[in-house]
Design a protein that fits this description.
Blueprint lengths: L2 E10 L2 E10 L6 E7 L7 H12 L3 E4 L12 H13 L1 H16 L4 E11 L1 H11 L6 E5 L15 E7 L7 H13 L3 E7 L12 E2 L4 E2 L2 H19 L1
Parallel strand pairs: 3-4, 3-5, 5-6, 6-7, 7-8
Antiparallel strand pairs: 1-2, 2-4, 9-10
Helix pairs in contact: 3-4
């Protein structure tokens, strides 16, 4: 077994994007595909490594790009400037996510009938937004995602897993109750795993800024990954 990767260019609304596909080259047939959606800084090594980890579990994973080929933020200010236009136009964001989904489905290694998405921070919002768009995916996983609802939520076809730090200052407990109500009204099959005493970005080993609210936690990282692994095994059949 060897995990292979390749870069894939694609476009949306005039923007050239570049994602990274990861798969196990010992596979002799198509396998379920999973989108991996990046945090507010753009597609970086963190999401590529998550894609490789999913490939080791037998999936074909695509670390998508929402900002543009080679576009990465290097500071909180730059990250915010990259993020905000997507929060301001959620319809356009959902359309871009559906373009990413189609790119994944077009790959020869992928079973196009079995797809899902996992996302981190802003990527968690993206995972929820792809499901909110009514996309016919099997599952959507949000890791410490921003719960901000879009203006319109379509009936949700995907099963959903929300992994959340209960002390996340960017998404307080009240916002999670509101999210649960929203997802229920949209007909979603959802579950929420909340980790007491944990803050935002608990899966990111580089997160160490308690004043900003981003702190890595090894236990929550391990528990949420196990929850995601179990969830994907269930929804992918």
């Amino acid at each position: 077994m060897a995990i292979q990767t390749r870069l894939i260019e694609y476009t949306h609304d005039g923007t050239l994007l570049e994602g990274c596909l990861a798969w196990d080259d010992s596979a002799t047939e198509t396998r379920p595909g999973i989108l991996v959606s990046h945090a507010w800084g753009g597609r970086n090594p963190f999401t590529t490594e998550k894609a490789k980890a999913l490939a080791e579990q037998g999936y074909v994973a695509f670390a998508l790009d929402l900002y543009g080929k080679g576009v990465l933020g290097t500071s909180k200010e730059e990250n915010e400037a990259l993020l905000q236009p997507h929060l301001d136009n959620r319809v356009r964001l959902q359309d871009r996510l559906n373009t990413c989904l189609q790119v994944l489905r077009d790959q020869s290694e992928v079973d196009a009938a079995k797809t899902a998405i996992i996302g981190y921070c802003f990527g968690g919002l993206c995972a929820m937004d792809l499901a909110r768009s009514g996309a016919d995916i099997l599952g959507a996983i949000s890791m410490h995602g921003l719960p901000f609802p879009p203006e319109v939520t379509h009936p949700i076809m995907a099963k959903m897993l929300i992994c959340h730090g209960w002390d996340d200052p960017m998404a307080d407990p009240e916002s999670m109750v509101e999210l649960a109500q929203e997802l229920s009204e949209a007909g979603a099959d959802w579950q929420l795993h909340a980790y007491g005493g944990r803050m935002h970005a608990f899966t990111n080993p580089e997160a160490n800024d308690p004043d900003f609210g981003t702190v890595y936690d090894a236990d929550a990282d391990r528990r949420s990954w196990q929850a995601a692994t179990n969830f994907l095994a269930e929804v992918m059949g």
